[in-house]
């Protein structure tokens, strides 16, 4: 699909969701190819908060000893991302 890649000092715009730990545990299982990674986020208001970002983890992208093919997100998935950004006011 689409995911963050760890790079010191880098950033991106997105949506910050607040969820209970039990729901995050479910999301952790769904996002199997990504590592939940603590980070700091800066809101558009300038406020800094602690958060978790799901970072691409190449080690988790192997199945039966075979590396998965890295492909760009589908047009449908990109449309969902764009619609979400518009809905939540992501710059």
Shape from CA axes?
Answer: globular
Sequence stretches where pLDDT stays below 50 over 5 or more residues: none
Cα distance spanning the termini = 21 Å
Helix-strand string: HEEEEH
User: Can you give the mean pLDDT?
Assistant: 86
Number of helical segments with 4 or more residues: 2
State the major sheet: 2 strands, antiparallel
Helix share, percent: 25-40%
Main sheet strand line-up: 1-2
The whole-angstrom Rg is 15 Å
User: Hey, roughly how much beta strand do the residues contain?
Assistant: 15-25%
Secondary-structure-derived class: alpha+beta
The total strand number stands at 4
Summarize the structure.
The protein has 91 residues and is an alpha+beta fold.
Structure description:
The protein is of the alpha+beta class and 91 residues long. The chain is 26% helix and 24% strand. A two-stranded antiparallel sheet has the order 1-2. The radius of gyration is 15 Å and the shape is globular. The mean pLDDT is 86. The protein has helices at residues 21-30, 75-88, and strands spanning 34-42, 48-56, 62-63, 66-67.
Labels describing this entry:
single chain; 91 residues; alpha+beta; two-stranded antiparallel ribbon; 26% helix
How do the strands and helices of this protein lay out in sequence?
Elements (H helix, E strand, L loop, with lengths): L20 H10 L3 E9 L5 E9 L5 E2 L2 E2 L7 H14 L3
């Amino acid at each position: 699909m689409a995911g963050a890649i760890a790079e010191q000092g880098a950033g991106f715009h997105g949506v910050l969701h607040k969820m209970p730990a039990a729901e995050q545990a479910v999301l952790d299982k769904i996002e199997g190819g990504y590592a939940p990674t603590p980070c700091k986020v800066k809101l558009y208001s300038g406020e800094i908060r602690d958060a978790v970002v799901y970072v691409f983890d190449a080690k988790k992208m192997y199945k039966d000893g075979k590396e998965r093919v890295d492909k760009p997100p589908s047009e449908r998935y990109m449309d969902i991302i764009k619609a979400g950004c518009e809905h939540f006011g992501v710059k």
